């Protein structure tokens, strides 16, 4: 555990996802067990198959090579239309305080010819990948191994959603209908060692407490450790799409440390799952502490379509536009980024209200 933190060490339940999720008593039981685990612990683990292990390893190699590149080269990986690309340590803001995380965000890589880019949809644009790595010893680009790993993660995401449908007892497709051409994305993260920061943030703090935005978060970490999560509690209510949950209970007791375990991915839930299930499943607050060594992490987000308008699964009143929530969150975290400046300058935010950006089916 990172020094200076006081937390219970988690002992997470591990599930092995079936390759093909079908309507069988066994898969229904697995879905119910997963739901019970999230409701009690806020997080669970899925075992990583050999293909996933290999893809993760290659992606990790690419991540390490990218973050070793000179600052000016990394800083050039930005785009004025998409929030994809590089975020330097101390650039991201959570609840008013700079995070020490150094990040490469991978969002849908859309060419200028894409109709959504042409129509200036907020957050839509190319992913500013770095140039190929200068030597050919191993991975030659960042793009190929990261995208291959994301494809594998996307398959796990769909399996999980189908198991959750069975576990909740809702009809097939209740969740997966939202993920057609989903706004899936990934953050490739590096955390500096505690004593090797640039001084812009808060000592020992990697990322402040917050919830993530979409349906599922599927994460993997190296052997260093630094993630803390907060299990659901009846006396702690929040709804991040209405009022920011950033900074929530950050200094309170009750956090659980997620120790690194080889060959698993951890899975917890985002705001949209909480909205759809009307708090039966809640988004999991989490935060990151800096350890004595630098640390490399992947966080993959399995998300609704950008244009999806979500409705509670029980058929009750209400509707929530995912694209608006996503845009709000990135504008909040990156107030000074060129992407935010252009979005504001060109009134792109107003487009979120247009019918073409909202899919109700
Ligand atoms: Fe997060």
What's a concise summary of this model?
By secondary structure, the protein is α+β, with helices and mostly antiparallel strands. The protein has a single domain, classed as Jelly Rolls. It contains 8 helices and 17 strands.
Written description of the protein model:
- The chain is α+β, with helices and mostly antiparallel strands and 361 residues long.
- The protein has one domain (8-358): B-lactam Antibiotic, Isopenicillin N Synthase, Chain (Jelly Rolls, Sandwich).
- It has helices at residues 25-41, 50-67, 71-75, 115-118, 143-168, 271-276, 322-333, 338-345, and strands at 8-9, 14-15, 44-47, 85-87, 93-94, 97-98, 102-106, 185-191, 205-210, 216-221, 227-229, 256-257, 264-269, 286-289, 295-302, 309-310, 320-321.
- The protein has an 8-stranded mixed beta sheet with strand order 2-3-13-10-15-8-7-4. A 5-stranded mixed beta sheet has the order 1-12-11-14-9, with no helix packed on it. Strands 5-6 form a two-stranded antiparallel ribbon.
- Helix 1 (25-41) crosses helix 5 and helix 2 packs across helix 5.
- The protein is globular and about 55 Å long.
- The chain starts with 7 loop residues before the first strand and ends in a 16-residue tail after the last helix.
- The mean pLDDT is 96.
- One of its GO terms (molecular function) is metal ion binding.
- InterPro entries: DIOX_N (IPR026992), IPNS-like_FE2OG_OXY (IPR044861), IPNS-like_sf (IPR027443), Iron_ascorbate_oxido_reductase (IPR050231), Oxoglu/Fe-dep_dioxygenase_dom (IPR005123).
